[in-house]
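Hi everyone,

Forwarding the result from last night's run.
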Amino acid sequence: MPRPLPPLQTPDEALRLVRWLTHARGKMFIPEDLNCADSVPFERVTGHRQWNDFYLVALAQRHSLMLATCDSALAKHFPEVAKLIP
C-alpha cells in the first residue's frame, strides 16, 4: 500500500512534489476537454463548492477512468466513477 505524503510546509516543497509527480511512472495526464455548459453531470451541482468535484467526475466519465477521492460523499454519489481512498 502506498505511503501517504507528508504535509507540505513551503511552496518550494509543493513545487518539488509537482515536479516529482510529473515525472513519476504509472501516471497519466488527461486533457481538460469538457465544456461546463454540457449537461452531464453539471445539472446535479447544487452549490459553488461542488464545481471542481463534478468537473473531475465528468472528466473521469469522458475518458473511462476512475476518480480516486478522499471525499466519501462524492464516492457515494458517483460509485460508478469515484473510488474512496481511506
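The helical segments are 11-23, 51-62, 72-77.

Cheers,
N.
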